[in-house]
Amino acid sequence: MLACFDIGASAIKGAAFHSAEDRPLARREATPLTDLDRFAAVLAGATADMERAEGTAARAVAISIAGVVDARTGRMTCANIPAIHGRTLAGELSARLERPVFIANDADCFALAEASQGAGRGHNVVFGVILGSGVGGGLVINRRIVSGPGGYGGEWGHGPVFGCVPALRGRLEAAGLPVFDCGCGQIGCVDTVGGARGLERLHRFVGGAALASHEITAGWLAGEAKASEAIDLYLDLVSGPLAMMVNTVGASVLPVGGGLSACRPLVTALDERLRARILWRSDAPLLVPAELSPEPGLIGAAMLGLTHLSEMRDV
Which major enzyme category is it (predicted)? Predict the structure, then answer.
């Protein structure tokens, strides 16, 4: 049995898995943001509860988390949960919980789950796309997460795509292309326009009211002028960088999750714009709704843990 957790800034979701095909009911607790002892205690208590309910000990703990682990140092980057930011979390939790602890980024776990059991089944190269409050992604090749230095991989939301130098930024803004400062410290990242907050920013940019993203998509579907203008600009800005990702990694399917993916017509429109911009032509959709809602993070964590346990047995 594996004790699996999907951890974000608002909640810790946990469930016991015996195989990656399990679909257990997740329990949910608030995430302790500033106290490592309380954070570890929540995981320990949840793991003990799972062991009592399942009648067996958890062989390991597997975690999908809204942060990244530097493979060289083991240190977490997780600004939204200060208690664990900069900590060698897997090692510290392993010592406290007295069993192996495996940790991966939540977008990577999403991509891993979809690649193996969801919309990416049968594809060798799967790029998981997150269109939530911001933009994220994960790359899986032959059912293994691809991660680079610092623990980052598939992060297509960051990098100065629009207006990377001051002179170019001025020309783009003069031509009517929005270039916004990004929370990562760079200028003109896809994250500034590609998520729900980015769509809301674009709507204001074209002269629309300050509306929530779901109100903007509803207005677009109803034919409202400013919402349609914002969505058209959104599709143009996001489809280009996404096409570069497809051309670069050779993905043959892109499962999409996150809040914006709930608007299926938006997913369809972005897919059509994407397929018009890649080097090869596909008559079949590439950007497709994820299939493993509502808990792809937990499923991905289970797959991560089972893979690590299998490799430990083989050593």
Answer: transferase
